[in-house]
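Reply to dn_fold:

You asked what the input looked like. This is it:
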Amino acid sequence: MDEPPSTPTIVEIRNVARGRQRLVVLTDGREFIFSDEACERARIAVDDAATPALLEALDGAEHRVNAHEAALRLLSHRARSETEMRTRLAMRGIEPAAVEEEIVRLQRAGLLDDEKFARAWVEDRRRLAPRGRRMLRYELLGRGIEMAAVEQVTQDIDDREVAIQLAHDRARRASTSSYDSGAAKVGGFLRRRGFDYDGTANATRLAWEATQAERSEVPADPETPES
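and this is what came back:
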């Protein structure tokens, strides 16, 4: 009767890729490359038995490392909501268990916080691309932020004030002397930013009146005297 094959052991662990990864060599000739962090997590050492459980632990640790590195790359571009992060990691082929563990890890580190994300989102929009409260709510809800948090971070937004300021800035740049033409440009811009019909119409009218008054106050250039 054939004897069952003996469990191979780890015969060598060698740093590769500038120390970021380790080559793990088994007595049966098999070789694996795992990240340095995965090896630390699994606490492997030379002469350890390379049991299926140990190899599975190494593989699971590697998935968690990949999840963390992917998450940090995503966060290097901008803050993310929990739903965004979970979706993005899943799209990268990260296993569900590793995704959930990474979500918890980021939350504990303060790198993933939906309320902070929502506040930062509203502030960035205010500074860089102001828009109506309705559109902001739609954007945040689409990123998985709960309704209560969305209401909280958008409750102080004054659509009328924002619309008037945007309309004024836009009207100043509109090269037209016709109210209908100017209103179409300014009004279309405001509607694309999420303002309703009444708010758009009011802001457009006020902006037109203000810019016309400003232009009427600018003195004409004096004629250049003949030499």
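The two ends are 119 Å apart (CA to CA).
Hope that clears it up.
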